[in-house]
């Protein structure tokens, strides 16, 4: 007799999106959205952003990349 196929759990449905904000030196601007299943998994991740994305209006800053590490959620 054939085995019954078990239902596959969609792991993306369990995740929630967390907003990553820049530090006080960059006026706490929202930088990125990160999917996480658990808050503990988000800390320690690194987010790459250009300076243009933070300053919103100075196109000469698009070549400078800044890396933010998530400390707390």
Oligomeric nature of the chains = single chain
Helix and strand content put the structural class at alpha+beta
Unreliable stretches (pLDDT < 50, length at least 5) are: none
Gyration radius, rounded = 18 Å
Q: What is the percentage of strand-forming residues?
A: 25-35%
Put simply, the count of helices is 3
Order of helices and strands: HEEHEHE
Distance between the terminal alpha carbons, to the nearest Å?
49 Å
DSSP strand tally: 4
Number of domains: 1
Strand count, sense and barrel status of the largest sheet are:
2 strands, antiparallel
Mean pLDDT over all positions: 88
Q: What spatial form do the alpha-carbon principal axes imply?
A: elongated
- Percentage of residues in helical conformation: 10-25%
Explain how this protein is built.
By secondary structure, this protein is α+β, with helices and mostly antiparallel strands. It has one domain (12-69). Helices cover 18% and strands 32% of the residues. It contains 3 helices and 4 strands. A hairpin with an 8-residue loop joins β1 (16-21) and β2. The relative contact order is 0.21. The model has no long low-confidence stretch (mean pLDDT 88).
Name the features.
two-stranded antiparallel sheet, 32% strand, single chain, alpha+beta, 73 residues, elongated, 3 helices, 4 strands, two-stranded antiparallel ribbon
Question: Can you lay out the helices and strands and say which pair or pack?
Answer:
Layout: H1 11-14, E1 16-21, E2 30-36, H2 39-42, E3 46-50, H3 51-55, E4 65-69
Antiparallel strand pairs: 1-2, 3-4
């Amino acid at each position: 007799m054939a085995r019954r196929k078990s239902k596959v759990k969609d792991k993306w449905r369990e995740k929630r999106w967390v907003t990553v904000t820049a530090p006080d030196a960059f006026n706490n601007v929202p930088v990125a959205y990160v999917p996480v299943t658990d808050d503990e998994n988000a800390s320690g991740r690194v987010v790459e952003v250009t300076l243009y994305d933070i300053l919103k209006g100075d196109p000469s800053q698009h070549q400078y990349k800044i890396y933010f590490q998530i400390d707390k959620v």
